[in-house]
Amino acid sequence: MRTLVRHWNRATAIAGSRWPEAATLLLVRLALAGVFWRSGRTKVVEGTWLHLSDATRYLFATEYSGVPLPSDLAAHLSLLGETFLPILLVLGLATRLSALGLLGMTMVIQVFVYPDAWWPVHSLWAALALVLVVRGSGAFALDPLLARGLAR
Q1: What is the pLDDT of residue 151?
Q2: pTM above 0.85, yes or no
């Protein structure tokens, strides 16, 4: 039994070390970024980065009208968040702030747009964002490089 416990403790120490954690946080960043990036790309005119489609304007004026902002402003803010925050996450730049922004977007969607989608969709997005808010980007990111550079 002691051998089993010793092996278990060694395995958990390895799993919790710097590189497995960095790889896990990279995967979390990519997963959360992918969800919002793909959503943002559906909001634009094909071939553009930030030109809202007429369909998106219509959705924000009708189906997403519960958001307590003017529909055009909500559509633009959503597009900006879904475009730039995922890019920052993939780069691991301002990770905690970017994840907090996506968590905020998730909660707005949950409360004002799709209140019945908490389980399993929005709870997973929130969990991914919270992991990044709490743990940060991990070693495979620009955040630690900038922190080291600023410390010099």
Answers
A1: 87
A2: yes
